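Lab notebook, page 48
Experiment: co-folding of the full assembly
Goal: obtain a model of how the components sit together before planning crosslinking
Operator: M.T.
Materials (sequences as entered):
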Amino acid sequence: MSSHGIKDRVAIIGMGCTPFREHWDKGTSDLLVDAAEETFASAGLGKGDIDAYWFGTAQSAMSGVPLAQALQLEGKPVSRVENFCATGSEALRQACYAVASGAYDTAMAIGVEKVKDSGYQGLNAFPIPNDGTNRTLTAAAMFSLVLPAYAEKYGIDPADLRRTVARIASKNHANGAHNPRAQFRREMDVDAICAMPSVAGQLSVMDCAGVADGSAAAIICRAEDAHRYTDKPLYVKALSFVAGNGSGLMDTTYDYTTFRECEWAANDAYAQAGITDPRSQLAMAEVHDCFTPTELVLMEDLGFSKRGEAWRDVEAGVFDLHGDLPVNPDGGLKSFGHPVGASGLRMIFEAWLQLRGEAPEDRRIDTADRGLALTHNLGGYPGEMVSFVGIWGSRLG
Amino acid sequence: MRGIISAGAYVPYWRLQRSAITAFHGGRGSGTRSVASYDEDTTTLGVEAARNALAAPGLPDAAALWFSTSDPTYLEKNNASAIHAALRLPSRTGAFDLGGSLRSALGALRGALESGGPTLVVAADIRGGLPNSADESAGGDGAAALLVGEADDVAAEYLGGASATEEFLDRWRSPGERRTKQWEEKFGETHYVALAQEAFSDALAAAGIPADDVDQVVIATSHPRAGGVVGKKLGRPLADDLATTIGKTGTAAPALLLTNAIESAAAGTVVALVSLADGADVLILRVTGTGRAPRSVAAQIGAGNDTLPYAKFLAWRGVMTPEPPRRPEPARMSGSAAGRSVDWKYGFVGSRDRDSGALHLPPARVSFDGGNVDDMEPTPMANAIGTVVTYTVDRLAYSPSPPVIFAVVDFDDGSGGRPGRLPVELTDTTPDDVAVGTKVEMTFRRLNTADGIANYFWKARPRREATS
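Observation: model returned without errors.
Model output:
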């Protein structure tokens, strides 16, 4: 038993991504139509040319019917996919396997979330009937547990570490300010972020991802067919996924300074893609910066920093737009907000732009020597999460 | 001999200074009253008292549990069943609500003392009234549990008792109302004084002792004027009625004050418990000096926190409704899901992998360490001591009283086995009062109420009083 991967067997040939906004004037189906039409146009295909659809949404729709209705698909298979906040990535992962298997020539993965119709700030999980003993803590509070644990483990002054994670937010907002699709386009400096009142642990609102509606999509085909549709396909180098068993909640050895699921998913992805030194081989990474401490820990779990060193690398600017390994060059969840079903595909959309040299000049990364990008998408909480890692490349081999 | 085998009380952590009431409404107030927290109700108070009463090893299983309160969480549904579940009593132990009136608990106690078999009498009350009322200020919240039965080493031997009953209008409250109304005090006084003298005299006869043999009279009543006169007329030394520290605890008062007497009186002391509540009841007992609960009433009085703001008290009582966090309120719990996890939800019982020793909170069928399937030992954790590993304060989450203080807690069940972990909400504390390393203990609470369903589970709270 092993994870073999499907390196270079499947390619992305078209993508689209709506602006992420509080779309008071657009419903779920409007967002799906917008993202799908942009994606069809990008690949030069029509909806009838796509053999099968994978439709990711956490709680804006059930079944494949809402997508088939929105796009008026006739006689097409549509699978609705949900896997916490990694739903969008999971939709594409399933579509890739279907094409790689030979079952279909083309497939679309499309993710959407209409978050802003709940009447509440923030994301609110749909309640599944239970015995009433489950935690009711917010995700912000669960992830805020990381900071004191990390500071304690590595002997960092909590006030210093608080500024370090504020720097992550500041960096992502600076990147997002250059992105017309991002929800928040204002730069935020570290002092301003640190001066805000805390909402959970040491975290202020500006340490949390925004809340937005949005949709993003990708069309894939077999790698050998890709050049029929585009001169610059993106090859799928690795797809990995881990669903945690929740043991971090019960196991006293778990110390809240790492997300094991993410480390496992990254190691699997690197093995599939043949990557041995991600920090020097990747041109960029889009990671799941739902809260600033999350991005800090991910730098270590994804192997970009040594254990206990991510805070130094953050401070040294390693992950800045023009640093050694740019992280979240599009602005991340921080600037985009987090329409759960769409976020994973939004991350891949940035890889699509950057590796094809199509990102706007003011946030374009040099990919001449490094033709690989990583996207990472997680869902759940420290101790019990799902994690996706995908690696995408502009060249075969 | 028959008597009280074990007694234990529960006094909630929070105190309201009466001067905090008068600072708002005007006037002068002195002393404190105990206040049940927003996540406590009479059922949870009863559970905590009973846990204290039953803490000692080797006590007989109760054949029945009788629960009395004037402030039941449910009508129709039996509140005693939740207490029974939290105490993990055997199913053959009957559990019954004896309801409504302030007199009910004394009736339960006398019934238990004068019948066969071990009976656990639990009395709890939460005392309110309208803002600035005498009941709001003079009332107090608390509970006590008395295990009654035959034993060689009872904590208090029952010598005899008597009741005097008469219909007259003193205090009344309709179901669902907050306000208790009272007829002119002097009218009740005339009835209580006569009834008390009658019952006292009959109780002495039943006990076969002269009045002079009574060393201490404990008066439990929500009619202070009558209580004062009766105390003088009986002419024997009076015990502290805890009015200045806890307040008048209504239905719980006779059991709570008797528990305090059992804990504080010297061996051999003869105590007459006098309850004035729509009649007079007198029980005479001889304290033996054994059978003390781990947490005495005095220790719990000493461990209280009297910084509760009046505004918070009003919010907890539902008198004032502050704007909640803008988050969805919790959905009601599933009755059938709760039914499958009674031992976890009510009893805080986890499971331990027989092979790896890994502790699972909540209990699991498949072990996270080694993958054993259906090879677990049920592991009661309600009395385990925990240590805060890390914690956070959540100002966004829904709570009946924000913010939520939440900690990752590692538990040691004292068996020498591997410790376990549960991320759990803290209570009876403030954000400044928690640190990594804080020792905590478990307490049975009502997490929330949705669709009228009280959702009970356990929280952790800092360990405070020293236990003997």
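Interpretation: The radius of gyration of chain A is 20 Å.
Next step: discuss with group before ordering constructs.
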